[in-house]
Amino acid sequence: MAKKVTSLDAFKEDQTEVVVDTSKKLKVAIIGTGWIAGAHMQEYKKMADVEIVAAADLIPGKASDFMNAWGYPEARCYLSCHELLENEPELDAVSVCTYNTQHAPCAIDALEHGVNVLLEKPFTVTLDEAIDVMRAEKKSGKVLSIGFQPRFNPNMQMVKKIVESGELGKIYYIQTGGGRRRGIPTPFGTSFISAKTGGIGAMGDIGCYSLDMVLNAIGYPKPLTVTGYTSDFFGKSKEYWRAEHKPEEYSEEFGVDDFAAGLVRLEGGIILDFRIAWAMNLDTSGDTIIMGTKASLRIPSTECWNGSIGGPMTIYHDVAGTDIGVSTTVPMLSNTKEGEFYHKIRSFLDAVKTGGKAPVPSSQIVYNQAIIDGIVRSGKTGHEVVIDIPEI
Under DSSP, is residue 290 helix (H, G, I), strand (E, B) or coil? Predict the structure, then answer.
């Protein structure tokens, strides 16, 4: 019979004080002033070394309305990313908060203008776009960090610490993903669900978080092959939108995945079993499991997956090589007082000021994007595809 052991005080909350050098202010602009831009602005306003100087949005009046609402009526507003970059030569950094299909063009434009970039997730829509951004990054010498704020959650960091400690032994199989029973995001229209703006759906919105949680923990091994599947049964259903009290026409506009799954072979002989859903007839698609030769780790799912952990994790292992099974509970850690979104932005700005490395580097997230791209390609062709990532 397995014996359950609970360690209540194994880990403590990090109380490190955030110290910010205010001797140099960074001039920052916001590109794309939709919903996620508000989350960026909320954190920028807390930082004494930031001066918000400009914003851009394709919709006339939207950027100025956004800046006025956040208390920056003096900010200069533009109708395109390129117009902003051409007219703001002293700019230090931009947050690219556009819809997915504009991530690559805007990031490349900013890097070519010598501006550091915090690029919201997903990295891009396709692997080819990601490679183009990375080439611009390399040529510019500027900082490009991808917007994966769950990395700064202490519980996500604990996953990585557990794996790196060797407690699990050699990792050979991972199950991960997440889902929402009903959660296709349309609070502000169809930019997430349209092919011409979203490009990819659940995979790019929340699937990239699931992939990053486990890939970052195991050191981001290179993906080799993918067998993938995508579907859009809920998004294409008029009944779904009627039940959600949304226009039935959304079913006609829907052009991305609302469910995706993939079986990925990684370097080092690791198998990654992945699934993600914006909508499904389940409360969860399953916990995340990292299986190793010495022990395995279970990471509880949440009912509405958005890059968080659903409860205390459990490590399953044996005692002294015997058949006595033990389960150790890893208590949930409290977030820092600033929160993970703050640290996402703060770490990017610190890298800009010091010339340091990107906190969430493209060299890692390109593997994340390659898996998503591989799932799309495999789903279309109906067979396994090889992942080929060009040299930068």
Answer: strand
